[in-house]
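User: two proteins, same treatment. go.

Assistant:
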Amino acid sequence: MILTPHSVLKEYFGYDTFRPIQEEIINYILSGNDALVLMPTGGGKSICYQIPALINEGICIVISPLIALMKDQVEGLKANGVSAAFLNSSNTRDEQNEIEKACFSGEMKILYIAPEKLMSGFLGFIKQLKVNLFAIDEAHCISFWGHDFRPEYKQLNILRENFPNVPLIALTATADKLTRKDIMNQLGLDETKLFISSFDRPNISLNIAAGREKLQQIGLFLNKHKSEPGIIYCLSRKSTEDLAMKLIKMGFKAKH
């Protein structure tokens, strides 16, 4: 059976159609190209590397900075029938051994790894694998201009140096023009194509109102959306607790 982006999307993720620019990115990566993807949180960035990883022979290595994010991604992939795992400081030695065996045998399709783990001498292990793609998640961590700079990310240019023929996709939800340029320079992606998804979220709106009668305004808004869940952001834990208690007294179901 020949795997296609659409067949993999349906079989493993249960979707019939792609979101805007996802298919274009996937086909670009499948053609052996590098890419920088700027897409809003919840826009479907992960599918842009997960589908090429499943179509091509070998394993995809995903560099991710957050243990919780890795765990969520791996659990989701496993639930969809994809062989995936993560390696970071939370693994026991026995767990790491089992994961390495699965990688060597060709069973593993997607391996998430922390940048600190990669830089602790793990590159030699990866060189023994048939890597079909490198994905750099939260790529703004590479740049000094990014809001969440990580020193280990600064060293990820070793991937291009050691794997010149393996496609690399860098993904982020937040990077201005200066940061995007720095990401490409740091990774050695001089001719990389930039994909920018629309950040327009028609289901989200922002209104600014005067502070007076704030509680009354919130109550009026909630009464217009009685059957809908929502999130109210406050500037501190105390103000969150105070607002929740006031809303409960007004008859709303609220928790903090």
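Protein 2:
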Amino acid sequence: MGRAVARRLNADHSDGREPRLSCDCGGEARFAGRRPRTFTAALGPLTLKRARHHCEHCRHGFSPRDRAPGMEDTVLSPAALRMIGVTAAGTSFGGASALLRDLAGLAVAPKAVERHAEALGREIAADEGRVIEPEVSGAPTLHLGLDGTGVPARKTETEGVRGKQRDGSAKTREAKLAVVWSAETVDKEGRPVRDPGSATYNAAIETIAARDTDTEIAPFAQRILREAERRGLDTAARQVVLGDGAAWIWNFADEHVPDAIQIVDVFHARQRLFDVAKAIYGPDSEIGRQWAGNRRRELDEGRVADVIAALRGHAETCAAARKDAECFSNNRERMKYPTFRQMGLCVATGVVEGGCRNIVGARLEHGGMRWTVAGANAIIALRCSVQSNRFDDFWERRASAGS
């Protein structure tokens, strides 16, 4: 099959009368004969004889036929590159190499898979940064969830970074994730459920904290705003921002989505209560479990003031209780769970946490993996494109640009 395709593509042999072409430098490129080149295509190795042109002005040579299919600077056909992208987005580079060999008969070494997948990821990231095609769903309410998760990083990437090790050092870099979804359907108990296919993801190891001297919005804040614009968050009748309580989430919402309803993930709030109960009464105390259960019930009933009062009752003897009393006090308006439920809003960030696990953790946190920031961001961009159902759109734009 591969030889037949090669014969068909090579059927227009040159008669030496190809016209002179314009070079990118502005000079004129002359026909310089036909040269064979072997590509890795979806059907296997493919050797093509292409007309070669040479510019005497800049001394640069090029093959016009390589430009149309996007193969000027690579030995991979677009179909083969796409196969590498799909497999490398789902599994390790070694695993992708094995899948390509077993399922398609393509011999692409793990290092080559890594190189091509990361290059494709960078191309997708650049495309995401300049293309904002509206994906407005028409849903009256859109939820924006924000969170962060650690990516195991190389030592060169963690120098000077504060972390959770005993000496204050870090072994990971934080990838921040933004998820937009709608939840117009409800389950049997009347709780809102994410609409199938409505979740889109955007993530990177980037900063969101802007300094007072900065004149531009921080990179991850720009990323969130692009995602919000793409999904039509700014025009939705109701906007909701959910998070685990981290200050950077609310700082972003206050500045960039001031009309949004802010909600602290209910499961995160509950977990804090059970953690502080262990700090007060010990890890295996029945009294502690009862205490935490009572606080959870107060929280679910919207009695946040009672929760804060109970925490302050232990503030003098327990640092965790003192810290959580302040946390719940600062977030009391974001913990009106009965009100939010009556409004039909999501009060949990399961979609976001699932994104952290599936977009980042499932691919970048395997044993022994250590990433550069650039490499991690490239694969994250690739996975976000696939998981957000934007991969096909990217390839259509890529094909159009090369035609």
